[in-house]
């Protein structure tokens, strides 16, 4: 995630921190969601808005793409870390899971790394879409249309890049007043009603078992069992529901400085690193440790601890050369 060093409204960083916390929580739910209907339900409603909202806010922070050196900046902060962690995580998972063979696919993103690759492409796509007519409409058409192509797989995260690009582009075109309109009086009450209504509508649109695959955004319609011409209307419906519930979430985000505002500027560290921590915990002990209600309640505590730790200044200090691509600078630039 591209980080912005200039001062900005704390509302944005508060929202980014809370959303990335929900991403961490959701990934804690993934290995056990199939065994627990309540967790499955919670994970689905969170999955409906957490990534779309995070992507929308990331697009909001990408307004400086026309500045000199921007492509070099996103290459260092997105593309270089992507390749670094593709290798690092590939090797780590090989030893963690005792795989019989080691295979490294640099162009097929592992786990959460798809976001770095897609974010790099989204920034490049701004150079084209900000110069054409009806950019949002075209982005939505492409996001819906990509679902009819079945041969892309996970290669270069192409499917997710087009599916989620409308949220990024919408965020780019929004200003702070657009994002904060949900902070008006009585909006929290309306937001609660919206959560309930959207959840009911979502359950009517798709069955529980298949809905998460739609939210992931990387499976073509045929792979979801929808081969009819009208399959794209389901994605359109999900686009609408995701936006509605995403703004309902923003109604509860604090507008003032909080104890986690600063961590909202370090979401790249939390996002990139949390997956390997969670998978290690499950592989070493967590599967066997979860049995009672209070054990599952501890997942909230684990998620909070991991989110705060990975966003801490100590983590930033030690991981900055990798996360921000600075480790390769001596190889790319000559000293004068």
Automatic annotation (TrEMBL):
Stretches that traverse the bilayer: 15-32, 44-66, 78-96, 111-129, 134-150, 156-174, 186-202, 236-255, 267-287, 293-311
Domain Acyltransferase: 10-310
Tree of life domain: Bacteria
Alphabetically ordered keywords of this record: Acyltransferase, Membrane, Transferase, Transmembrane, Transmembrane helix
Key word Transmembrane helix present: yes
PANTHER family in the record: MEMBRANE-BOUND ACYLTRANSFERASE YKRP-RELATED
Family under the similarity heading: Belongs to the acyltransferase 3 family.
Name of the featured protein: Acyltransferase family protein
Organism from which the protein derives: Alkalibacillus silvisoli
Lineage per the UniProt record: Bacteria, Bacillati, Bacillota, Bacilli, Bacillales
């Amino acid at each position: 995630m591209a980080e912005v060093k200039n001062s900005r409204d704390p509302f944005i960083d508060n929202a980014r921190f809370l959303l990335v916390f929900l991403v961490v929580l959701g990934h804690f739910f993934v290995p056990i969601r199939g065994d627990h209907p309540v967790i499955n339900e919670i994970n689905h409603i969170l999955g409906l808005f957490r990534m779309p909202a995070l992507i929308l806010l990331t697009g909001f922070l990408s307004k400086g793409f026309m500045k000199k050196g921007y492509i070099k900046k996103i290459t260092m902060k997105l593309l270089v870390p992507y390749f670094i962690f593709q290798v690092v995580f590939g090797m780590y998972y090989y030893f963690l899971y005792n795989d019989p063979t080691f295979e490294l696919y640099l162009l097929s993103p592992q786990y959460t790394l798809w976001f770095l690759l897609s974010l790099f492409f989204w920034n490049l796509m701004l150079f084209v879409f900000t110069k054409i007519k009806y950019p949002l409409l075209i982005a939505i058409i492409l996001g819906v249309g990509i679902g009819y192509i079945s041969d892309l797989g996970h290669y270069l995260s192409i499917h997710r890049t087009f599916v989620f690009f409308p949220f990024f582009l919408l965020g780019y075109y929004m200003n702070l007043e657009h994002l904060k309109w949900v902070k008006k009086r009585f909006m929290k009450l309306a937001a609660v009603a919206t959560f309930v209504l959207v959840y009911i509508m979502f359950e009517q649109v798709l069955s529980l078992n298949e809905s998460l695959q739609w939210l992931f955004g990387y499976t073509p319609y045929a792979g979801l069992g929808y081969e009819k011409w009208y399959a794209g209307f389901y994605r359109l419906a999900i686009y609408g529901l995701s936006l509605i519930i995403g703004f309902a979430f923003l109604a509860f985000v604090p507008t003032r400085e909080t104890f986690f505002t600063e961590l909202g500027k370090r979401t790249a560290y939390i996002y990139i690193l949390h997956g390997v921590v969670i998978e290690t915990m499950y592989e070493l002990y967590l599967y066997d440790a979860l049995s009672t209600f209070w054990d599952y309640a501890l997942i909230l505590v684990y998620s909070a601890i991991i989110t705060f730790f990975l966003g801490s200044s100590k983590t930033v200090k030690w991981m900055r050369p990798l996360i921000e691509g600075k480790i390769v600078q001596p190889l790319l630039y000559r000293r004068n």
